């Protein structure tokens, strides 16, 4: 190979490699930052086989707030407890913080956080920023 | 009757658009004057139908479904009018109306305009007719305009954003006339700069609106709807810079062409994202999958047609074709990095959508992705932005320029160390990210001011005037950058429960819940918390009034935050629950989110700077 050819080869290879590394980093970061969305049934049905995934990772839990299940600690009213359902299974959600405006019994809610054990979900954030008739696509049929 | 006339005008316009497209094929010798008359009628038709819809809104004609859904008798006049663009049908009509401005100006730039108008008119008539009637059981009162939208920020945010979008539609139409592409570059540059300015201002105001109206105190959430406006902005910024090289040297024309295709395609695609209902979004106020599919098809069509013309685009080669100066190389790098950023945002926005469509899993992509991937790209971009003033003039010797840049670098470094010590004294904490951000800020500032001062000393006033928009826009970027870094890193925040008389402390401030009042307005009921604030450092007292509103028409709760803001610091109070004893207003408690955010106003101030720069640049282009 002539000098020019070698130079071009090195240039092309380095461009390809850097693009590959770039895309690799991109996809890796993407994977690290996705939140999986589950309904209560999906959590409970997959709990045994997908144990580590569900317990360690941040997930989004979507469901309907069970009417009458909302309990607020009167002493410190930032602590809330309620159940979400997809009409098959219920999961208890524990949340400390300010409830969003659109939080209502019998309406859809998406909670972001972690499963503590099989029946309790610790929510860091409650997402209810959509309009009031919004339902996550998976819960459309309820 | 009036409702049918409104629709009739739309159909009339669509017929005239159709004639504009077909006549030149039927009769090769068709008169240009005739076509222009057809265009005028079409534009007038759209204007009339918009006026009729406005009239229906102002007079609260609830026999029109769209009015009944989005307006209410008790709304203030201004919101009655603005409810017009409160949902999909009206927004698209507004979009189309604004497009007519450019159509009127660039009437003779080929028939792509007519095609785009025709496609949009078909969309409105078949899929999103704002004049659809209710014939049975006409409601006495309408549902309500979404309370979140009953706000001044909302009154101006969509029209500004659309003024930006339609500019890219217009540029696309002009560019499709590929034989005259180079001749039309000047017009394209004018339309681009003003549209880009409006897009910037629209995004800025949207971000400010989200900050005080959505009640969580954030200014950007990497929400699909926000991304939908950010992607065309990134590409528009790349285009703005690329056009500078195009005009000077007649090179890199094709890259501008591609940027034009994608900025328009992405702005239509953004509308698809918002309206299709596939994504869970903060701002998706109305959605319908059928419309989504139509808009997706339109997007794909735009890209396809754009590419067909792209391959036909030939550019007469010139001798200086490959002689790139350092300035050109910097501009190319800038366009490249901005385009990469836009692709990254697109990937993050589309990824959940693709998985959802193929039913693999439902996921959302968190802000972490965008921050981690984009920051390493924005840092070199800011460094480039910083050194750019040094290359506005032809370089005499390489050695001099190295010396100059290293001197400027050292100066910036020393100043930023000093500034960081100052920040540490004030906030008691310092972060690496703050150091990087303040350094970038100082670096941009030092380079800009050095250049301005040197030119002023040498009495090159016309040069400074020529580059005025350059200085102001880049200053704007630096200001926004500082605002983002400082307000994110030094935010103080707490959620508390307060009974009447209770107090809480945050930063140098003490907050006391004095009383809770009920207020009743024409279309909402409100509970207002009177909060006494004591500034311990300066020993000043003042009061803040966060509200919780209930809109009975739409059965919606709304948090009206209280802001005490200065340019350097915002105090932000948002109410959670307000519980009062029905018999005794002196017994009760609230939950309250208290936030103190330094420099947060800088974020929007920078946006305003960029807008002003775009205006100046537009005026200069018109003069020359």
SSE string of chain A, helix = H, strand = E?
HEHHEEEEEE
| Helix/strand structural class of chain B | alpha+beta
Report how far apart the termini of chain B are: 50 Å
Number of strands of chain B: 11
Number of strands of chain A: 7
Largest two-chain interface: A-B, 29 and 44 residues
Number of domains of chain A: 2
Brief digest:
By secondary structure, chain A is of the alpha+beta class. Chain A has helices at residues 3-32, 40-46, 51-56; strands at 34-38, 59-65, 71-72, 79-85, 90-96, 108-115, 120-127. Chain A has 2 domains: 1-34; 40-128, Nucleic acid-binding proteins (OB fold (Dihydrolipoamide Acetyltransferase, E2P)), CATH 2.40.50.
Description:
The complex is a heterodimer of chains A (142) and B (624). Chain A is α+β, with helices and mostly antiparallel strands and 142 residues long. Chain A has 2 domains: 34 residues; 89 residues, Nucleic acid-binding proteins (OB fold (Dihydrolipoamide Acetyltransferase, E2P), Beta Barrel). Chain A is built from 3 helices and 7 strands. Chain A has a 5-stranded mixed β-barrel. Chain A is elongated, with a radius of gyration of 23 Å. The termini of chain A are far apart. In chain A, 27% of the residues are buried. The model of chain A has no long low-confidence stretch (mean pLDDT 81). About 1% of the residues of chain B have low confidence. In chain B, strands 3, 4, 5, 6, 7 and 8 form a 6-stranded antiparallel beta sheet that branches. In chain B, strands 2-11-10-9 form a 4-stranded antiparallel beta sheet, covered by helices on one side. In chain B, helix 10 packs antiparallel against helix 11 and helix 17 runs antiparallel to helix 18. Chain B has 624 residues and is α+β, with helices and mostly antiparallel strands. Chain B starts with a helix and ends with a helix. Chain B has 18 helices and 11 strands. The interface between A and B is large, with 29 and 44 residues. Strand 1 of chain A pairs antiparallel with strand 1 of chain B, so a sheet runs across the interface.
